[in-house]
# Entry
Amino acid sequence: MSQALVIVAHGSHLNPGSSAPTYDHADTIRAAGAFDEVRTGFWKEEPSLREVLRTCEADEVYVVPMFISEGYFTEQVIPRELRLDDWDVADWDSDGLSADVATYSAEDTGQTVHYCGPVGTHESMTDVLVRRAESVTGDPNVGEGFGFAVVGHGTERNENSAKAIEYHADRVRDMGRFEEVQALYMDEEPEVDDVTDYFTAEDVVVVPLFISDGFHTQEDIPEDMGLTDDYRTGYDVPAAVDGHRIWYAGAVGTESLMADVVLERAADAGADVSAAIESVRETTRVAPGADD
Amino acid sequence: MLARQFDALLAAAESDGGIDFDGLRVVREGDGHGDDAESNDGYTFATPEHEATGLSESELHAHADGNPYVSNWYFWEREVQRHDSPRRAFLRHAEAAADHGVHERYDALADGMVTEWGQLRIEATLTDDGDGYRRYDVRHVDDADHPVEELERYDDPLDARDLSKHDDDGMYRPLKTGTNLPTGWTFHDLGWRDAVETVETLYPATVANWYREREGRLDIDHWTDTTDRQTGIYGVVSELPREAVEWVAEAACVDSQCVKRREWQYDEGDELAADGGTGAFPCREPCSLVIAAARRWTKLEEEEPREYTFHLTPSEKEQIEGVIDAVADGRVDEIREADVYEDANRYRTRYLRAKLFDDHGDLGGVPTDPDDHENHDDHDE
# Structure
């Protein structure tokens, strides 16, 4: 029986770059050859979540949400729009971080849909955050003498959003690789505006746990941290702020290793993708001295 | 004829029932089950024009070699396959297979058979070597007469994502079926898989929905179905009045704005008066762009009308109407700088503003809110 991977994401009516990471990771996975079909679907673009399943011929579909945390989109919008028969969020049996997979039949197509948890809460996402630090510094061994900040939106709209930030910050800290690790938020304490207050290390890598670059990661956060007075004029990497060097990485979702997290989600749901995971990890590695 | 085509033909002739496809019938007779197996032994090869029975394998080869019915059978039954699939139906549609026999189609394919699909022009042809393989060219309908060399040429269907992201003026296209598909490119000399993939990348899910409609099982979600299931910030859209939904459809869902044909109505049995259009493929529910715009309209329709008094000359009234028309019809960029006979000409419009707006930007000096005289300072930032 043929199997398809469908990556679902938010997309945008206004920002043409919103879909780019989703397309890029889909292309990486397509090239690895683990699925008969790899498709993408969007809440705000096309194919819509409503119609993406019918673009697949496969009988068995693994759906992986390109979202940072469990919440409104993963629990309500996506299952409803995909028409997952008898969807019940309790089937994920999640504490807000542990959704893995629940399997349903799609009402309109009859396909078997393995609906996976979001990429943002998967444990392998921690590796992508660290990889992002390697990419932005061009140093595959970055860590010694460096602080590391994970930035999230905060709890304003969704308490699980902060849980995901804390979870990955704890995991990076437990690696013992960076001098200091801190979770920061856009709309609550500890705030990203005060980033330099939270580190003694001169060099600090700042990675926003966002799927794609847009208003928040390209305009708000750089200005809030003082990397630039006006986002339109750009900022240096690293940028000097209050005696620190801030290595601002931009959205983690644009890192090519994200394709690995998507595959891990599908693998956890039962897809046979082990060879593809090896291949993707290999092809997305950072070369020493790579300039990002 | 390719060796694999004849091998496949032999194998299919031996199989249960043999071949019966698009006018071609090939079957191995005398399989030992009949009383008179000896005399009937051999292959039958039949087309609408010709029938031969009792053929040996080499005689069958001679009949099959160079025969369009055979290459046609191989292409559809051994290459495309997937009976009852949208992509097969679409490719059959691209050469009007339901209406024309194999000879007619081969003659027409030699010159190219064209299907229009929204703003796409899809041309099906045959390869020159007589093996029956179809090739496809996909481009903008407005580029029909351009030689391939004059267009930007692509081979990978996934490239269609980037090239269709912006219109010819460089503006982001939030709606893939909007009527602003850029021009100047071609996906040329594609195989059948890539042809369908290219079409589906430019116009996602249109082949699947067209197929469902043909099969009589298009799952239409009307306005009320779609708005009733909205939650979060879009929950309010179900409150938009019935008459305003007419204006939504007229504003956004007509042929001048979207190449889909609107099949959704206000509700089952409650049709909208607006023209649904003549598109080749259906629109089965209000799209996310319409829902997002309707959210704004729902908020705006919550306001009560007020009476304002303005003094306009007859030409000024007509000019305001002309400006609205020009914006609504996307004509503003076409109006020449010195064409002061056009209502939406920039100088004419600036003159009107200079004459009729006060320092606060209020038309005729009439504040939008009667209590707003004192609050004007807030606007001045």
Notes: The first strand of chain B starts at residue 19 and ends at 21. Confidence is low (pLDDT under 50) at residues 32-37, 377-381 of chain B.
